[in-house]
């Protein structure tokens, strides 16, 4: 079998390491083989490439050096930072970051949207560490260097020595090269230079390069330039990716109404698109518009019955609406789907307790403790203490008696 055909076959089977090794053999024989060079770039990129639309978090530097703040006191309902407090019955409580308790831990929800140094130092915490959240670029840089450790001779391409204008004019090489520099090498500035040259070579008519420019601008903090590029790309070819990235820009600018407007316009072009409906539901939930948010989550379930986020958010809405028995049905559905973690068993235990299924409470909390790690164990013990103090009320000769639940 031809070596290049075999490498291409491994790439299509998602065996990227074997594909890259075969391409290396071809390049040892002929260093100017552009087909093998391009295929190896794509294989190395595919090994670490992730969906970065929802992978961005706001770090300390981003929250402190925010130059896009227009008003410190926004009108109610127009800002994610000034959402109403949970004072009325039925509204969900809020955590340390000010976000309403939701059914899912989403990207950028571990860090708060505070504008002061005190909030920035207190709230940005990862799920398993007390270290403040770093930016998206720094995490990707660690991924890139880890992948280069397997190459004893150093990096595959010397990016600083590339002639960007030369490669930008080669249509079959320019896009894989951009993805390699952007994701594998995490060199945003050189990726931006390549995208600028390629946009000029395409005479500003290629929407793909405009989206690439927007991605680079967004990571460099030039959110207004990124907004302009995404809108220009949408005028040429509307895509779901561009709509989601534009909505993330408005989320970063704390303009939830613009996010709703963009996603609603996108749904007219892409009806029943789950990712767009999810974005709308998240924004409405952050604005404490729970009924409309649950409506969108139900529409998501009608299109994708296995959507974990929609099921979990509907379940938590029923729980805080004093319907734990209905929430229990949704959590059991997650358990049947194969989800098996401490948080799920903790929620099932609370639903069983408030639905008066006392025979299942202890078993659920024991299972949650066996699976809990780090601070999740503290949350489980807090709920166990609450259940143990209140106990199970029953009548004994007309007098209320409290029985304490013991957890082994």
TrEMBL record:
GO cellular component: BBSome; ciliary basal body; non-motile cilium
GO biological process: non-motile cilium assembly
InterPro entries per UniProt: BBS8 (IPR028796), TPR-like_helical_dom_sf (IPR011990), TPR_rpt (IPR019734)
Gene3D superfamilies named among the record's database cross-references: Tetratricopeptide repeat domain (1.25.40.10)
Matches recorded under CDD domains: TTC8_N (cd21341)
Name listed for the protein in its UniProt record: Tetratricopeptide repeat protein 8
């Amino acid at each position: 079998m031809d070596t290049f055909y075999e490498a291409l076959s491994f790439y299509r089977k998602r065996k990227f390491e074997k594909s890259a090794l075969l391409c290396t053999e071809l390049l040892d024989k002929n260093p100017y083989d552009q087909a093998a060079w391009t295929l190896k770039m794509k294989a190395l990129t595919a090994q670490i490439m992730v969906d970065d639309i929802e992978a961005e978090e706001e770090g300390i530097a981003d929250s402190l050096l925010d130059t896009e703040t227009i008003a410190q006191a926004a009108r109610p309902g127009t800002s994610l930072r000034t959402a109403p407090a949970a004072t009325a019955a039925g509204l969900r409580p809020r955590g340390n970051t000010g976000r309403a308790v939701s059914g899912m831990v989403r990207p950028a929800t571990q860090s708060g949207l505070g504008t002061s140094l005190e909030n920035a130092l207190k709230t940005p915490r990862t799920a398993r560490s007390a270290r403040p959240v770093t930016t998206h670029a720094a995490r990707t840089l660690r991924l890139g260097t880890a992948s280069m450790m397997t190459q004893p001779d150093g990096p595959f391409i010397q990016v600083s020595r590339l002639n960007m204008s030369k490669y930008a004019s080669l249509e079959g090489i320019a896009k894989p090269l951009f993805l390699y520099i952007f994701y594998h090498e995490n060199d945003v500035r050189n990726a931006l230079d390549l995208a600028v040259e390629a946009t000029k070579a395409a005479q500003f008519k290629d929407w793909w390069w405009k989206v690439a420019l927007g991605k680079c601008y967004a990571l460099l903090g030039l959110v207004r330039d990124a907004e302009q590029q995404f809108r220009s790309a949408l005028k040429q070819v509307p895509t779901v990716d561009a709509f989601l990235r534009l909505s993330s820009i408005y989320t970063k600018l704390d303009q939830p109404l613009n996010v709703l407007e963009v996603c609603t316009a996108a749904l007219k072009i892409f009806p029943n698109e789950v990712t767009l409906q999810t974005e709308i539901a998240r924004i409405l939930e952050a604005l404490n518009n729970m009924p409309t948010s649950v409506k969108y989550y139900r529409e998501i379930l009608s299109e994708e019955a296995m959507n974990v986020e929609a099921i979990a958010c509907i379940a938590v809405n029923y729980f805080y609406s004093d319907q734990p028995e209905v929430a229990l049905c949704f959590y059991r559905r997650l358990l049947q789907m194969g989800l098996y973690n401490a948080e799920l068993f903790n929620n099932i235990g609370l639903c069983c307790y408030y639905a008066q299924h006392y025979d299942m409470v202890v078993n659920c909390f024991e299972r949650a403790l066996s699976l809990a790690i780090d601070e999740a164990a503290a949350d489980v013990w807090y709920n166990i203490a609450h259940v143990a103090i209140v106990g199970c009320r029953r009548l004994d000769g007309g007098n209320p008696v409290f029985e304490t639940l013991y957890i082994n």
